[in-house]
């Protein structure tokens, strides 16, 4: 027996504290003009001290459950995509499961950096299609501020905090997840990583002094990879779904840089109103950026039932992924 899996509710949660480009001018050698012209970012949301990823991820999940009208007890699985878990273990998904009261759900974390939401939806929808589960919460939550080096101007201006979630359930044929394309190229692991805190370089006085617990990124290499990955993954997912670029009603790209988003928009010949952009107000929120943008598109009525939504992301790993979904 096989079923169809689709998105039946979306939710997101963002901190209220705003860090503007003017704030960064006081912290590092940068300026608003550079940040806006090179990235498209004007401000980003930063969590308060003492808060953790599960705080925002739980709120995003609750919003998605409310939107779907499904009770937490009916959730079978919680998948949390994150590279900034509350702790190394237990899984942040377990903390979310408990706080939601999802007492019948299994829970695990998934690490695929900014592509994490694409991976999570692919795994979750596969488990619904095969009949294993009926309701799967996929949440992407990251507080990148926790691993951002606020003395490194080449990365600190880029990132923000937040969480976005979807509830996946059985839907009628012709709707839901139409195709998925995932990929990995671990030879590029060196371009985007947090070197310390794992088994290779456990926390030590030296690792902290050498600032090895902060995210490191080769911006130019990541940029080149991102432009290629966005285009090729989108092309593959359209082909698998039997769609063409003209069929795209809404494109929800990972929000890393407006120039990367523009390259994808031009490549697929899409009008500006078909591409969801949140980067100016939230920066790069890692795995959360796509579900946050999707939630805003759904709640504003820009993404409507029956629309073909293409989501595409890339990130550390290196990883990439695209999904074609009929809402
Ligand atoms: N303010 C002012 N100048 C800066 C800043 C800053 N904040 N940051 C860097 N510069 C300087 C550099 O030092 C460099 O100066 P130099 O020429 O004297 O050496 C100059 O600006 C140009 O630097 P580039 O790195 O070439 O700038 P670029 O146009 O590539 O933009 C950026 C940098 C924005 C990081 C871009 O490369 C980018 O967006 N890359 C992709 C990042 C990305 O997509 N990450 C996604 C994954 S994130 C994840 O998975 C968690």
The percentage helix is 25-40%
Uncertain parts: none
**CATH topology tier name of the largest domain:** Peroxisomal Thiolase, Chain A, domain 1
Tell me the overall shape.
globular
How much β-strand is present in the residues?
A: 15-25%
Order of helices and strands: EEHHEHEHEHEHEEEHEHEHHHEE
| Main beta-sheet annotation | 5 strands, mixed
> Mean of the pLDDT scores?
97
**Structural class label:** alpha/beta
What is the name of the CATH class of the largest domain? Alpha Beta
What order do the strands of the largest sheet run in, or round the barrel if closed? Answer: 1-7-6-4-5
CATH architecture of the largest domain: 3-Layer(aba) Sandwich
The structural domain count equals 2
Describe this structure in words.
The structure is a single chain. With 327 residues, the chain is α/β, with parallel strands linked by helices. It folds into 2 domains: 4-173, Thiolase/Chalcone synthase (Peroxisomal Thiolase, Chain A, domain 1, 3-Layer(aba) Sandwich), CATH 3.40.47.10; 178-326, Thiolase/Chalcone synthase (Peroxisomal Thiolase, Chain A, domain 1, 3-Layer(aba) Sandwich). It is 33% helix and 24% strand. It contains 11 helices and 13 strands. The strands form 4 sheets. The protein has a 5-stranded mixed beta sheet, with helices on both faces. Strands 8-13-12-11 form a 4-stranded mixed beta sheet, with helices on both faces. α3 packs across α4 (92-100) and α8 runs parallel beside α9. It is globular. The relative contact order is 0.19. The model has no long low-confidence stretch (mean pLDDT 97). It binds acetyl coenzyme *A. Acetyl coenzyme *A binds next to α2, α6 and α8.
């Amino acid at each position: 027996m096989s079923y169809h899996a689709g998105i039946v509710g979306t939710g997101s949660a963002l901190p209220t504290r705003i860090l503007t480009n003017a704030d960064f001018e006081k912290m590092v050698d940068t300026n608003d003009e550079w940040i806006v012209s090179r990235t498209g970012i004007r401000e980003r949301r930063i969590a308060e001290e003492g808060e953790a990823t599960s705080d925002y991820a739980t709120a995003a999940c609750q919003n998605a459950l409310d939107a779907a009208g499904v009770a937490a007890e009916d959730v079978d699985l919680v998948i949390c995509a994150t590279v900034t878990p509350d702790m190394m273990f237990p899984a942040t998904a377990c903390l979310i499961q408990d706080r939601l009261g999802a007492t019948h759900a299994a829970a695990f974390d998934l690490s695929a950096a900014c592509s994490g939401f694409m991976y999570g939806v692919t795994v979750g929808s596969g488990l619904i299609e095969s009949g294993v589960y009926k309701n799967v919460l996929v949440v992407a939550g990251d507080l990148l501020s926790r691993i951002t080096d606020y003395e490194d101007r080449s990365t600190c201006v880029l990132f923000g905090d937040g969480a976005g979630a979807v509830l996946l359930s059985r839907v009628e044929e012709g709707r839901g997840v139409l195709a998925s394309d995932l990929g990995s190229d671990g030879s590029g692991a060196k371009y985007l990583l947090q070197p310390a805190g794992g088994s290779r370089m456990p926390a030590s006085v030296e690792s902290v002094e050498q600032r090895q617990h902060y995210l490191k990124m080769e911006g130019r290499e990541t940029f080149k990879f991102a432009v290629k990955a966005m285009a090729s993954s989108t092309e593959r997912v359209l082909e698998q779904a039997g769609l063409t670029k003209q069929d795209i009603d809404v494109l929800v790209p990972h929000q890393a840089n407006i120039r990367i988003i523009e390259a994808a928009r031009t490549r697929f010949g899409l009008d500006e109103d078909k591409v969801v952009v949140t980067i100016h107000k939230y920066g790069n929120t890692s795995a959360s950026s796509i579900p946050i943008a999707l939630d805003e598109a759904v709640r504003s009525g820009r993404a409507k039932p029956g629309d073909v939504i293409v989501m595409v992301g890339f990130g550390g790993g290196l990883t990439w992924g695209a999904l074609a979904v009929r809402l």
